[in-house]
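Hey team,

Filing this mostly as a record. A colleague (T.K.) asked me to run one chain through the structure pipeline before their review meeting, and I want the input and output archived in the tracker in case anyone asks later how it was produced. No errors, nothing strange. Just documentation.

Input sequence:
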Amino acid sequence: MKVADMHCDTIADIHRFREKGEEICLSRNRLHIDLEKMEKGDYTLQNFALFVHLGRTERPFEYAMALLDTFYMEMEANADRIGVVRSYKDIEENQRRGRMSALLTIEEGAVCQGSLQYLRDFYRLGVRMMTLTWNYANELAWPNILNLEGSGTIGYVDTEHGLTETGIAFVEEMERLGMIVDVSHLNDGGFWDVIKYGKKPFVASHSNCRALVPDCPRDLTDEMLRALAERGGVAGINYCIDFLRSPSDWKEGETPKSLVSDMVRHMKHMKQVGGIGCIGLGSDFDGIGGELEMRSAADLPLLEAEMHRQGFVESEIEAVFHGNVLRLYREVLR
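Output structure:
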């Protein structure tokens, strides 16, 4: 079954390891994702995020540009196996040529430093999706999980803050350009402002169901899922254990593990709330830790088999694995 995955942090990992002097590349490596594993998993498209941690750099724009260079160096080195996507026609052309597609995204809207000019420049450089925040407040909006320097992270549901005026302008400009708005990491107030001020389908690239994991504010409420679905959007199932099951759900002595059965449990809930058309995949591979039943991109057949086992029919599995995401890309990308 062809796979379209809306989020991974593989490029940031490759760049970070290279900064430490380790030779590592996209074609084959020890990470969750490389081209060899993607081919084994039958991938048709992978979103690659330029992930910028604001607590680790004082120059987010420059760091994003360094990640961008790493991305394009890898694309050029593997042009026979994977091609960059700037429009939906590029996806079709890559399929025709028998190679996979790479869609470039940004995870942390602060890389634009509040400048629409920088946003347009990133678009010109191939970026086609962006999360408005990561785990820090920025010029655009606030997150539901905050990084507190020296104190770890704190998660809470923030309905007090919405998008800033700059954030509203960014949503409008992203839609004009044909860049997909990504609300993963965005707080609840910001989510509802995207509904209010936006018009096009958008995504929560790696977020699950808050009804099933009430202590994970990064997941979406049922009300959010319905609104996302009504707008034609897609939520990508996140493979991280913290998004799939609450700590209280594990029995004493049981080792927490990311299970495909839990992923399908969230899919069933999404289907009940928003319909099959709002469900996609957003692994967060190379951005998550812990024990994984699907240990890499090569293991997606495990999820397909579990969906069959739990009663999903072939057309539904096809929609979740790639159909819904490609439908949204066809509608939004230019």
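Quick notes for T.K.: The chain has a mean pLDDT of 96. The two ends are 26 Å apart (CA to CA).
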